[in-house]
Design brief:
The complex is a heterodimer of chains A (463) and B (157). Chain A has 463 residues and is α/β, with parallel strands linked by helices. Chain A contains 11 helices and 24 strands. In chain A, strands 5, 6, 8, 9, 11, 12, 14, 16, 17, 19, 21 and 23 form a 12-stranded mixed sheet that branches. In chain B, helix 1 packs across helix 2. Chain B is elongated. Classes of the chains: A alpha/beta (463), B mainly beta (157).
């Protein structure tokens, strides 16, 4: 059996580190003050960071989910500044950084189908663009650092409101050393037709990336946001711990798509949460292919009547990977509805876990929720778990949950092979069919990449 | 088939501990629960497949009246190298009263690929159509709801 998992990872390259600033390894008050000083932040932000540091120190590692005991918090660089300023033309980037993005194909994608792009390299956003007519309509698409400088009131009002630093250990860590990420504001009734994209790249060894994203979609607006991420392959581990906060106002709709393809030495521990007000719709589309351990449960809090939350999650766990993903929905208003669909594939000794929460508060009436999780285990060394929790209190709820774990359907496989399709190809067709309901929600380019990736992962790995 | 049953270790608790140790063993357990006004119940159901070709089906049906509270924990585990198992765990809850609470956490832990395992949970009120039909035949609302509840918990022979 050939294991192509690592060899196939075409983003595993790296370039030498020639940076403007690199903090010392480890985390302490001096480092946090240093980051804050370099960023020239207002006093309240420095206090926000220092408070979060205390919280981080006081909280234990989670005792559930993935095994995080391998993270050595003293062996990580918490802040790396790759370039002096953010640029508006790819040509203005330092040569190696530009080469990286060319190889990943971001400038090409930008021309074809994106309304705006940000590129984060290590700790900072190094490139940013936005279509000029969107700028005229009042759409704000900045890095979080720029956002803090230009719109301090907005940032102060919303930052930490959906995900407070006290939420969990990694939210606290992010709050104290955050850098980069995007700040988006969509004005009333503005619909952004093309997606906005942010691309995250880790290049250095033992790097910790802690971006912070805040999206505010005002009444009646729409935005689709894409994020992608890759990193080089190193023998030592890197840490990625982001916080994403989204506010979906009345009648607004936000779609947040993630294609997580970190190299298999990255711990990916992310907190994502959206507050949805009256008749708003939040959609999380979450694809997890890479990383060593992922723990990520995009959450939707339905705060206004008629609000709706949709979580589509897809994970692929290969050799030495543990993907602990899922979704959370909290119904806090009447007539709210939610749907969670999860598809997971475990292969070559990988472990995928679905962890879900559906909560209906005592005061919420007529809420509906539907959860479906399907898992496919492709060989005898792999493992799949399902840990859903339903906490139902309100009047007249309609809850359904189903989960199914199994192998490739023998009959279907037999049918395909009887038609002369080689077994390996047949398996990858069936796997692609299995994830199709979610894969089709990804943008075309990603969906195609997903398909080819899965075909590659399948190669030589049947049974 | 009757070897396995939910036990009632103490008031307010029901437990099932199903360990399938013999190959080709097939077990089906159906438990019906009626929680009257203000009653509380903890239900634990654990199914562990330790022998190959084993089959288990566990179905819990519960009717909840006013302010009743049901906590359901389920776990289906298939160990490594235990092949060709088929397991299903279902919880169906009918909320007849108001102010009911249900907490349900059915887990699956599957350590090999030669399995077919599933679980499902449904929580809802009696359907309005059914209630309307019975009432149109002259039954009072309370009678109609009780009739639906009785039908819901009746175990098919």
């Amino acid at each position: 059996m050939v294991n192509l998992n690592l060899d196939n990872y075409k983003y595993g390259f790296s370039y030498p580190e020639e940076y403007v600033f690199k903090s010392k390894k480890g985390l302490n008050e001096d480092i946090v003050r240093e980051i804050s000083a370099i960023k020239d932040e207002p006093l309240w932000m420095r206090k926000f960071r220092l408070n979060a540091l205390d919280v981080f120190k006081s909280l234990p590692l989670p005792n559930w989910g993935g095994d995080l005991s391998g993270i050595n918090f003293d062996n990580i660089y918490y802040y790396l500044k790759p370039a002096r300023t953010q640029v508006k033309k790819w040509e203005d980037l330092p040569k190696d950084i530009k080469k990286t993005y060319d190889r990943i194909g971001i400038p090409e994608a930008e021309q074809k189908y994106l309304a705006g792009v940000k590129a984060q390299y290590e700790s900072e956003i190094v490139y940013g663009s936005l279509l000029s007519d969107l700028e005229k309509k009042g759409v704000i698409f900045l890095s979080m650092d720029e956002g803090l400088k230009k719109y301090p009131e907005l940032v102060k009002e919303y930052l930490g409101k959906a995900v407070p630093s006290t939420d969990n250990k990694f939210a606290a860590l992010n709050s104290c050393v955050w850098s980069g990420g995007s700040f988006i504001y969509i004005p009333k009734n503005v619909k952004v037709a093309l997606p906005l994209q942010v691309y995250f790249r880790i290049n250095a060894k033992n790097m910790g990336q802690f971006e912070r994203t805040l999206i505010i979609a005002d009444e009646g607006s729409f935005v689709s946001y894409l994020e992608g991420c890759t990193a080089p392959i190193y023998s030592t581990d890197s840490l990625h711990s982001a916080v994403v906060e989204i506010f979906v106002k009345k009648n607004a709709r936000v779609r947040y798509t993630t294609v997580q393809n970190w190299s298999k030495n990255v711990y990916n521990l992310v907190t994502k949460r959206a507050f949805v007000y009256q008749d708003g719709v939040m959609e999380w589309v979450d694809g997890n292919l890479g990383s060593k351990i992922t723990m990520k449960y995009p959450a939707v809090y339905l705060l206004g009547e008629g609000a709706k939350g949709i979580i589509l999650s897809m994970v692929f766990a290969g050799k030495n990977q543990h993907q602990d993903a899922g979704g959370k929905v909290v119904h806090l208003a009447n007539n709210t509805s939610s749907q969670i669909i999860s598809k997971s594939i475990s292969k070559n000794g990988g472990r995928s876990s679905f962890r879900g929460l559906v909560k209906i508060a005592e005061t919420s009436e007529n809420c509906k929720s539907n959860v479906v999780c399907d898992a496919l285990i492709l060989d005898k060394n792999s493992r799949s778990d399902t840990y859903p929790l339903m906490d139902i209190k309100g009047e007249n709820p309609q809850i359904s949950h189903e989960a199914l774990v199994g192998r490739i359907n023998e009959e279907q496989l037999f049918y395909l092979t009887s038609r002369g399709i080689p077994k390996q190809e047949a398996v990858s067709m069936l796997v692609n069919g299995f994830i199709e309901p979610i894969a089709k929600e990804f943008p075309m380019e990603y969906a195609m990449e997903l398909n080819s990736l899965i075909s590659l992962e399948m190669e030589g790995g049947v049974g | 088939m009757t070897k396995y049953k939910f036990t009632n270790p103490k008031k307010g608790e029901k437990k099932l501990n199903l360990e399938l140790k013999e190959s080709e063993e097939a077990v089906s357990v159906v438990e019906t629960i009626v929680l009257k006004k203000n009653e509380m119940l903890n239900v634990d159901a654990t199914v562990v497949h330790k022998a190959k070709n084993s089959l288990a089906k566990v179905l819990v049906k519960a009717v909840l009246y006013d302010n009743a509270e049901l906590v359901f924990r389920g776990n289906v585990k298939v160990e490594r190298n235990v092949k060709n198992c088929d397991s299903n765990l279902s919880l169906k809850v009918l909320l007849v009263g108001r102010g009911c609470k249900v907490i349900a956490s059915p887990a699956l832990e599957i350590e090999n690929n030669d399995v077919k395992c599933s679980h499902s949970v449904s929580i809802s009120k009696p359907s309005e159509k059914e209630t309307f039909y019975l009432m149109s035949r002259g039954l009072s609302k309370v009678f109609a709801t009780n009739l639906i509840a009785q039908g819901f918990v009746r175990v098919e022979p």
